[in-house]
Structure formats: C-alpha cells, structure tokens
Amino acid sequence: HTVYHLFxxxxxxxxxxxxxxxxxxVLEGLRQGKLDLAVIxxxxxxxxxxxxxLLPSYGIPVGLPGHRLAGSSPAPFxxxxxxxxxxxxxxxxxxxxxxxxxxxxxxxxxVVLEVTNIEAQVHAVLEGLGITIMSxxxxxxxxxxxxxxxxxxxxxxxxxxxxxxxPPGQLSPSA
Length: 175
Fold this sequence. Notes:
Low-confidence stretches: none
Order of helices and strands: HHEEEHEHEHEE
Structural class: alpha+beta
Strand content: 25-35%
Oligomer: single chain
Shape: globular
Number of helices: 5
Largest sheet: 5 strands, antiparallel
C-alpha cells in the first residue's frame, strides 16, 4: 500500500491531491502556496522549509521482465554502461547518486531519455526504451503486476529517506 492509501483509510474526511513531480516543481508549489506540504526524496534540509523524516526509500534499477540484469547474482556496476537509461533530470537525488557512482567506476552512462515525471519514466521503460533507477515505492504496483522487475546490480539498492516538507509556521488543519 502507498502512503496515500494508508492516509486515506485513516482520514477519509480529508481530500488529497497526489501529483508526482521532481523536487524543484514541488518546492515551487510550496513557495507559491499552492501546496500545504510535500514529500521529497533525499532532501534532509531544504532552505526555507521544515523537513521531517517520513520513511526510508530504496532506489533500484528496474527493467522489463527477462532483462539480462534480472539474474540471481548481482552484475558488476560497470554493466550499466551497456544499458540505455531512462533517468530523471540531473537535479533528482537518484540521478546525482548514480552519476557519482558512474564517475567513481570510471564509466559513462548512456542516457537515452531524460524525463521530469515519474509516470513517464515508468511508461518509457514499459515501452522498452531502456532501464531506469527508481524508488521501490514508485514501481511497486508495476512490479507486483509483473510488468517491471528489479535488476540485480552491485551498489544497489541506494538507501535514502522520504521527507515531509512544509513552510514554517502554522499548517492548515488538513496538513
């Protein structure tokens, strides 16, 4: 179950809008007062906002079932250099960590598509455009349905945290 579903079960009287976007878009929505609060991956401190830990997040490579990296033993990290990657923009937490890991391994990543929306990232992988690195929470439904599978690569999962982020001061009753 997603955090959204758990929240809705405990508070059915509160309307919730879920919009999955990159952190920069979410933070701008907070700054403009369009959002009461947000959940952001990997941002333990965000200038001008209060951040509170929510839950751990694990970034893993995912691809289509039957992918060569879906074996039982983890492949060396350098094998990612042979893959077409569908990744979020450079400001995304997992993209930054992946780029750093590639630099340390002395490999170049073949990014064939850069997307700003998680659903578009998942759909690109489902359409066979490449593999991606995503939070296990974001691909849980597609994985359970057998549409995507975790890929076994050394250095993964990448552990981080999800944080609740909100402006300082009084929160709305719903928030």
